[in-house]
């Protein structure tokens, strides 16, 4: 099933092209700013990068005595990294590699470059370099279709959809959703190139199943009044991964965020379309959550590298839009959060014993949480996570919260249940310190685990942990927090 979805909180109303939006009002009311700067709604750290890619707004800001971003005009060389003119020294960030993975390369410098292209803003740059026109407009009022390789991302203008013959079903990912003539535009279609992009046809890897029927129409959908409704504002199409699992669901949102960068736009339009024939002035087919070599599910990553600017920017962006603030850190205290589980499996059997041990350290401020969304809303969950210095939990989707930890924090995956890469790699992408249980003889499973179909399985049982080993690892995490460059308190921590 094709799902039309907009994550409204993450998006901000700007034209998809960024440069094609209506120019700021240079004849505004006296005493009023020349541009609605409040509509930008980006973290303060991101403003110079936004102005770099939106020079028309920077120009207005220079002339406007009421512009709140004057101080950022001196930083217009700052760039995310995917821009053609972006110099490496002005990038938002760059990964750090501690050793060379000889299976990939032979120098630290090339390892950093590989990781940057795999999982940082270099990934966005490669998608931009792949963009090619599949349906060429002849006049300004014509349609257009521009896509990356394999139709993993597309942008369309004056798009025509005919939904009258769509058969309703419970199949999430119908392969024959549109027939010829039911999706298309008035433009010159390169049908040969379009049909050659189907090698990765798959529900969550490509838009080929939906766009293979894109048709060169003999009418202009909007000008010729062929539409029951015309959607004037930019619209994002997404196909969602498993929404019941936070880890998989945030594969949707990180790809939506990357899509916004590829578009140079951050828009907030929500539409549920129920009409027969629909036309979209501007439509975006977002990057998908399970693309080969996409982000971040099962992504092959070079070892030894961490800290992508892309994931740090995503974290900052979400927290800013949701108004989640940092209330610490606290001088002389380390905030420890233990994520409990109310599910049947992967419970911490001696949780009380571990908590009591933590409370013997006066520096630790300990809380236990259970992120059940019906009892604790997502915003409240984020406030707790973002105000945590050490985040502890069993292997499970709740550890996806590590995306929103502060930069100095550590995440302790208490036991990875033999799935070693999942949250280790996510922590590397985000750039927070990761530790997990080391000594097998110090962890005690309740039984061998019983998967419904696969038999014995370590994810399908519960565990107890050696208290002394647990405290040793937590104290290691605390030492990392106290020594982190962004930890503001430099007092000695010998008491630990």
TrEMBL record:
Key words, A-Z: Endoplasmic reticulum, Glycoprotein, Glycosyltransferase, Signal, Transferase
Read off the InterPro entries from this record.
Glyco_transf_61_cat, Glycosyltransferase_61
Keyword Endoplasmic reticulum found: yes
GO molecular function per UniProt = protein O-acetylglucosaminyltransferase activity
The record's GO CC annotations read: endoplasmic reticulum lumen
Q: Which family does it belong to?
A: Belongs to the glycosyltransferase 61 family.
Enzyme class of the recorded protein, top EC level: transferase
Q: Which organism is it from?
A: Pongo abelii
Write down the EC number: 2.4.1.255
* Name of a matching Pfam family: Glyco_transf_61
The reaction(s) annotated as catalysed by this protein in its Swiss-Prot or TrEMBL entry are:
L-seryl-[protein] + UDP-N-acetyl-alpha-D-glucosamine = 3-O-(N-acetyl-beta-D-glucosaminyl)-L-seryl-[protein] + UDP + H(+); L-threonyl-[protein] + UDP-N-acetyl-alpha-D-glucosamine = 3-O-(N-acetyl-beta-D-glucosaminyl)-L-threonyl-[protein] + UDP + H(+)
Q: Which residues form the Glycosyltransferase 61 catalytic domain?
A: 307-411
Q: What does this protein do?
A: Catalyzes the transfer of a single N-acetylglucosamine from UDP-GlcNAc to a serine or threonine residue in extracellular proteins resulting in their modification with a beta-linked N-acetylglucosamine (O-GlcNAc). Specifically glycosylates the Thr residue located between the fifth and sixth conserved cysteines of folded EGF-like domains.
Instruction: Classify the source by domain of life.
Output: Eukaryota
- Which lineage? Eukaryota, Metazoa, Chordata, Craniata, Vertebrata
In the record, which residues are listed under signal peptide? 1-18
- What protein name is recorded for this chain? EGF domain-specific O-linked N-acetylglucosamine transferase
């Amino acid at each position: 099933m094709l799902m039309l979805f907009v994550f409204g909180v993450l998006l901000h109303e700007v034209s998809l092209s960024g440069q094609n939006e209506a120019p700021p009002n240079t004849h505004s009311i006296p005493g009023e700013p020349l541009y609605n700067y409040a509509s930008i709604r980006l973290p303060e750290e991101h403003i110079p990068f936004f102005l770099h890619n939106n020079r028309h707004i920077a120009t207005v800001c220079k002339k406007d005595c009421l512009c709140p971003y004057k101080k950022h005009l001196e930083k217009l060389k700052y760039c995310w990294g995917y821009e053609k003119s972006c110099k490496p020294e002005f990038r938002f960030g760059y990964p750090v590699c501690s050793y060379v993975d000889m299976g990939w390369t032979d120098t630290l410098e090339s390892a950093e470059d590989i990781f940057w292209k795999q999982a940082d803003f270099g990934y966005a740059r490669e998608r931009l370099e792949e963009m090619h026109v599949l349906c060429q407009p002849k006049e300004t009022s014509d349609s257009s279709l521009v896509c990356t390789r394999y139709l993993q991302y597309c942008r369309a203008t004056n798009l025509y959809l005919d939904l009258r013959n769509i058969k309703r079903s419970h199949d999430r990912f119908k392969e024959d959703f549109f027939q010829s003539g039911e999706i298309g535009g008035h433009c010159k279609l390169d049908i040969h190139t379009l049909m050659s992009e189907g090698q990765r046809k798959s529900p969550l890897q490509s838009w080929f199943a939906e766009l293979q029927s894109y048709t060169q129409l003999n009418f202009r959908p909007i000008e010729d009044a062929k539409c029951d409704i015309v959607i004037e504002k930019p619209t994002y199409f997404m196909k969602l991964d498993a929404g019941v699992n936070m880890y998989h669901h945030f594969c949707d949102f990180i790809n939506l965020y990357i899509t916004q960068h590829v578009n140079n736009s951050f828009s907030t339009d929500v539409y549920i379309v129920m009409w027969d024939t629909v036309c979209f002035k501007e439509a975006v087919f977002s990057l998908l959550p399970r693309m080969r070599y996409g982000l971040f599910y099962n992504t092959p990553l070079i070892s030894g590298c961490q800290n992508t600017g892309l994931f740090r920017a995503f974290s900052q962006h979400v927290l800013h839009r949701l108004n989640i603030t940092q209330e610490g850190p606290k001088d002389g205290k380390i905030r420890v959060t233990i994520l409990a589980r109310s599910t049947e499996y992967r419970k911490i059997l001696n949780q009380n014993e571990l908590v009591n041990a933590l409370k013997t350290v006066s520096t630790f401020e300990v809380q236990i949480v259970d992120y059940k969304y019906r009892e604790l809303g997502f915003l409240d969950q984020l406030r707790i996570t973002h105000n945590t210095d050490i985040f502890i939990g069993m292997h499970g989707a709740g550890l996806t919260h590590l995306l929103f930890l502060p930069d100095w924090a550590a995440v302790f995956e208490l036991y990875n249940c033999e799935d070693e890469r999942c949250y280790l790699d996510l922590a590397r992408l985000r750039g927070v310190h990761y530790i997990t249980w080391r000594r097998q003889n110090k962890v005690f499973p309740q039984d061998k685990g019983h998967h419904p179909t696969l038999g014995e399985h370590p994810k399908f049982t519960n565990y107890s942990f050696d208290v002394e080993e647990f405290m040793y690892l937590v104290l290691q995490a605390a030492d990392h927090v106290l020594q982190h460059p962004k930890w503001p308190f430099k007092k000695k921590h010998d008491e630990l």
